[in-house]
User: What shape does this take?
Amino acid sequence: TLNARTSILAAANPVFGRYDRGKTLKANVAVSAAIMSRFDLFFVILDECNPTIDEAIARHIISVHREGGVARACTEVPFS
Assistant: This one.
């Protein structure tokens, strides 16, 4: 094999728009085994559907752009 000195960051959305925890990663993103074998690490990042938190995040983003700018964004984050 060739000595590679390159890092690649790739992203994929799940089939049908939602990650199914009952399926494998390969089945969720519909990527062939040949392509998956080229990556060393996989990180699955899930967005838990919570309307209350989603609204708080959306309101925060809008208010930062309308009113406070970066200084406010760094001090008043309504989520963790």
About this structure: The chain has three helices and no strands. The mean pLDDT is 81.
